[in-house]
Amino acid sequence: MKFEQHLSQQQKQVQRLAMTQQLQQSIQVLQYNTEELQVFIENKALENPLIELQNNVSDFTYPGSSSGQYNSEKDSNLMNQIPDNHLSLFEYMIDQIHLNYRGTFLRKLVLFLAEFIDLNGYLTISLEKAAEQTGADAIQILDALVLLQQLDPAGVGARDLRECLLLQVERDDRSPALAYIIIEEEFEAFANRKWSLISKKFDIELSEVQEVFDYVQTLTPSPGNVFGSTAGLYIRPDLKVKISEGRPIVVSNKEGLPTIRFQQAYFSKMEKIADPEVQEYISEKKKEFEWLQKTMVQRGDTILRVGTEIVERQQDFFMKPERPLKPMTLKEIAEKLDIHESTVSRTVNGKYLETDFGSFELRSFFSQGLASSDNDGEDTSVSDVKKQIKLLIEQEDKAKPISDQKLVEKLKESNIEIARRTVAKYREALNIPSSSKRKRYD
């Protein structure tokens, strides 16, 4: 058997996209939201001496002054402009402990337990472990817990949800007479709506259990949340929608973003230095500036194009009071604008559009469609189906709540074909309990 080896040359042309570092950064810049983009630009300015930042800050107008100048004749206490920085839950509790309790060993135990209160206000250490670490006996630790639980807010220091609710009920003079004993003795049955057992045990009407349930709904399961920081909980919309001549018009919003400028004077000075390394350095930094400027423009143009197309397709949302949404996918926008679907995805994530009735993430305008049975060519968006489910439940007889199967039948009357499992999924997404848990006994 002979083996032969043949060598041949073939020329093949292959087109590939080279993912350079600048291209990867351009993709990343498109994905940044406004705050992330601002940080990125500021970091680039720190690295590049040829980049100068000019902040786009609106002129300050003092409340009540039309000219933007300070008016001493108005209510002009500038201290009102200083934000109110609240104490944290831990700081608030420490202040109360030092104010209300004398400097005894018991106070030290209360201070020790306060260190194990989480952000929701719950105690995260067992009394046995606390006693072991402090050298106190069981009675002393229990006394310290009682003192801790007498602090504000009501419910703080609880070890579970049941105890948290009991602490709040105990300090509320307006609580129903049976609220405390029902939660204390039959909390599980109460939470699982096995109210007939409670009704028989305490010889009361179901309407009285319903009254306790309605009251418990007013309590908080997380008393520490009131001290949650709101710092930074704001968004800067990338686009604004204005109504002009009966149509929504989209404009870019550059407020808050710095404008980048080229440091021409510094560049001209460095250009005169006859040092190859200096020349290579400033040439590289100039190219980086040009790339950043181009990338910023492309990002803004892409967001504006995508936003304009979204608003064009969802005009009814901006013009009609019920805010209906039409079915729309990322692929449809990508094909219309002749860009990749992943580009649309990066563009709509974390980017917001401001209207007169609120700000909305661009991604929220996308929704799959459900085929209607009337064959009119118009699909119904998932968002609209959820709204109809919510409306039907709001209008139901609370003594006889509508089951998921009944919701299917009622939606079918509106020419919407949908499975019961899908109705249940949408109902749960709306945080609406099942029919058995919506029943009222008024």
Automatic annotation (TrEMBL):
Keywords: DNA-binding, DNA-directed RNA polymerase, Nucleotidyltransferase, Sigma factor, Transcription, Transcription regulation, Transferase
Pfam families for this protein: Sigma54_AID (PF00309), Sigma54_CBD (PF04963), Sigma54_DBD (PF04552)
Origin superkingdom: Bacteria
Domain named RNA polymerase sigma factor 54 core-binding: residues: 81-266
PROSITE patterns in the record: SIGMA54_1, SIGMA54_2, SIGMA54_3
InterPro entries per UniProt: RNA_pol_sigma_54, RNA_pol_sigma_54_core-bd, RNA_pol_sigma_54_DNA-bd, RpoN_core-bd_sf
Domain RNA polymerase sigma factor 54 DNA-binding: 279-440
Protein family according to the UniProt entry: Belongs to the sigma-54 factor family.
Name of the protein described by the UniProt record: RNA polymerase factor sigma-54
Species assigned in the record: Enterococcus larvae
Lineage, uppermost ranks: Bacteria, Bacillati, Bacillota, Bacilli, Lactobacillales
